[in-house]
User: What shape does this take?
Amino acid sequence: MTIRLFNTLSGQMEPLVPIDGTTLRMYACGPTVYDYGHIGNFRTFLQVDVLRRALELFGTPVRHVMNITDVDDKIIRNASLAGLHIQDYTRRFEEAFFEDLNALAVKRPTEVPHATGHIAEMVALVERLAAGKLAYQTEDGSWYFRIAGDPDYGRLSKRDFAGMTDGARVELDEYDKDSARDFALWKAPKLGEYHWTSALGPGRPGWHLECSAMAMRYLGDTFDLHAGGEDLIFPHHENEIAQSECATGAVFARHWFHVRFLLVEGKKMSKSEGNFLTLRDLLLRGYKASAIRSLLISVPYGQQLNFTFEGLVAEAAALERLRAFRTRVERHLAQNAFGQGENDALQASVEQHAASFDAALAHDLNTAAARAAVFEVVRLANTAADAGRLGRENATSLLALLERFDRVFAVLTTDDAAITEAALGWAECEGRLHEAPAALLLQRTLTDAQIEAEVEQRDAARRARNFARADAIRDALAAKGVVLEDSKGEVRWRRR
Ligand code: AMP
Ligand code: ZN
Assistant: This one.
């Protein structure tokens, strides 16, 4: 199956097929590692992960390159304030970032190049541009890209930059969206600032240059897809295209994939609004990693997602239902509990919903429609099972559909308790444990084996008809965040 995807560059839906006929080569702008990642960042990385997983599900291998921006204005400033070498400053945020990606079940990219490890490629790119008169050096020693030398400048963001002033410059990596300015490729150091020595003179690379150099180093002059959040369209991606295409004369990335922003309770997330949330903030408050992943990918990449705590609680409940259903069907199979034979109507419905699941993903990665197909068939199958109308073939097909769903959504087998525990361990080191709710901390004192032992004690009390004691054990466990569920003589427990 071929995925059709909206391309920011062409403004149209296009089939996404590898240029080389086999492997899809994609570059996604990675994090700037000067702080912990927030849930907006993770929404973008998750949608890129969903795209990759969907391509793989449909049989296309993916070469996924994601850079680490480990040098930029903010990093240099923060490291110097902290009195650290920039690599010592960025290392812990990079480690934290990969822990967070793991917690969110994001597949590790095939290559993770660091900006500071590719200075030579960046310098060579500026030299190529200079040879073509597209880069020039200013008096302070910095190098700029001459946008007047690129007649197609503005092709991605579709801004009309006619009448732009030749030579107007901007030193910052991120700047006003309405101004076309010659942008810095290589920045000369201010007094005492961290820098590299190079053929261009002392300095450090601009952010845009970093991505062009690393993308072409790992994927070639022309590759299939370039991804990032919608804020990167201008100037970052516009500038990447200008530098790369002016240097090589070839098309840079064929397809541009942009993820729309996440809002929090209807507002832009910002530290000053007080609605700025990192993944760790949410884990520390007891929200489960699987529910966070599920919520952040529930709305298709081309629409804004309004994050709410209510939505997160509802998402966790929806996942519980899916998991409970899967356990139910597995139990039917294990016990061979199929009284009345196959349910042909249900079987037809499962097949139809499985086809809808694939079709939804193939149509501009519509995660909302894909999951709706699975939730709908689970509802139908639960009703059929209640009526004793679930056959063996039905059960097998349903499990296969859930497995297919989870190859892309990856929310059914997450070890949420272990992830929460790791987050609490981190919070303890950071002196932030007091932010966790009491119930979460109480539960932390119980291991799985201790809970099993308590459950057994309660069973024994019930067998001895000592219901008061059985209830007391149940209540004590509940106070520690452990819920017991009795179903048909069997007791299961889960952490709330
Ligand atoms: P940064 O570390 O700031 O370079 O951002 C990493 C990625 O997160 C980039 O692709 C950004 O476009 C993306 N991003 C930043 N804020 C948000 C947001 N609120 N919603 C979605 N993506 C975002
Ligand atoms: Zn980039």
Residues 69 and 115 are 5 Å apart (CA to CA). The mean pLDDT is 93. The longest helix spans residues 309-335. DSSP finds 16 helices and 16 strands in the chain.
